[in-house]
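Milestone M4 deliverable, item 7.
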Amino acid sequence: MSVPIGKDRLCFNMHRVYGEQRLPYLLNGWKQCDVFGWEEWRIREDRTSGGYQPVFVLEKHEHDNARRI
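Output delivered:
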């Protein structure tokens, strides 16, 4: 998965930028296997465009893969 990273922001109806508050909610329920291009300081960078988008390699948590009846 790849999403714009920076200071949390909703850019009108175009897109969201995921930061210190929004990103944990987005990743909730997923196991992060790897991340490519991550630079910690950029999560606080104030940006409106999607120029910085690291790639998150995710896997569903084991308990979420269980079949529900």
